[in-house]
Amino acid sequence: MPSNSKMKSTIDVAGRKLKIGNLDKIFYPATGFTKGQMLDYYIRIAPVLLPHLANRPLTMKRYPNGVDGKFFYQKDCPAHRPDWIKTIPVWSGSNSRNINFCNAADLPTLVWAANLAALELHTSLSLAPAVTKPTLLVFDLDPGAPATIVDCAEVGLWLKDYFDRHKIRSFPKTSGSKGLQVYVPLNTPASYDLTKNFARALAIRLQEKHPDRVVANMKKALRAGKVFIDWSQNDEHKTTVCVYSLRAKDHPTVSTPVTWEEVAAVLKQNKPDSLTFEANQVLDRAAKLGDLFAPVLTLKQKLPALS
3-state class of 55 per DSSP? Predict the structure, then answer.
């Protein structure tokens, strides 16, 4: 990466010319992690990240002045984008028009987005062109203090146990913040009504079975010391942080795919920090382990009748 940075530099990314700048700007003041390092991370993680971004409507969470500055969500792909950036039209009833989301299907688009300070990348559970059909089911496990990711690990393992009994594979990843997420790949015909109702019913069942540990109700006042199973993410108009995305926390943490063995270990050892991974650690993990989330892209499964 070029190191100079108040001046804009033009770089060649896979045959596309891109102007990038402000590479020395501190994006994470607590660690000194710069915009240049952020771009470098996204370029290096791209081989495993891009398959999970490609053809999914992308919402960019932009932090022009770093994690301590103001941020905004951008759904409409910017009008000043290069003409080679592909978009995905999604009808918005509330706006009575199509919203043209960016399609970060290749490295130049990813680098272009990162240069816009799109620190966090949030994706739909649908794959274009079938933008009204989910290919995934997700459970977003959010601990209410003093609960931690250790408690999320316990709930995640309960979800895994349920799906294991039905011979369905599930895949965990950290949120990159304080929680854990469990993904169930479908890649078979499904509707958001099906996935959302299923996720809600299973969350309520776990709440009934473990009322002191789990809450499925959306009210924040009920979450203290429990794990909220957010089933509502299974919605056509919602997004979830993409695997391998950076998060805007004090440190450059990443939404990281993990193994169920690692989830079980954090519960056994009661070490919440063991499921926190920063950018360099994630690059090392990807080099060593490959993409632990690769099966999510292709594995075909159908949801069982809730039993």
Answer: coil
